[in-house]
Amino acid sequence: MKPQIYRSKTAWVLGWVWVAFAALNAADLLVNGRLPSALIAGAVLAVLTAGVFIGCLRPGILAREDGVLVRNPLRNVFVPWKAVDAVHVSHSITIESGDESVRCWSPQSSARERAKSVRRGVPATTPSTPGYLPSSRAEVPKAQQTAAMAVAGRTHADWVAQQLTEAADRTPRPPGDQTTLTATWSPSALGALAAALILVIAALIVA
Known about the structure:
Mean pLDDT: 83
Structural class: alpha+beta
Number of helices: 6
Helix content: 40-55%
Number of domains: 2
Number of strands: 8
Largest sheet: 5 strands, antiparallel
């Protein structure tokens, strides 16, 4: 199974836009900046960039050969496929394993996205439908209407949850197996926070 990453594309793109903006400003501070204002501005950029990395760029769900790795802002949670009991979606994706569960930071399902998906799944009005008005638009085939209604209300998060469920169902679970999820702190997230904190302390000292 080829590793597959699921995340919010919007957050990913906006995150990299911010990183490019922050990099340009950091370069300008290094070339033209003067202490202590340059260090203070650099510390602010570092804090904001660390927040963007933790909240937008890092989170995601990585489906691997041996299981699913949930990357939340500060924590990594690994669940072997054979330990996945259920995957369901409310506002976010939740993976259940035994008596434990992990809520995934990204991707999420917003009410606006779900409403938009519902509207896409509403079949076109046909002559047999009350309130039908003649139109030059061709009648939608019944098979296409059925397919549209089947996916009505489904969001990207729902699709991701289905992919994870199908992958877990393909992995047999031995009777009595008690394997559950494993949660650890993220070194990259903690490193980003530590770097930002160091710059803030340096700016306070210099100021």
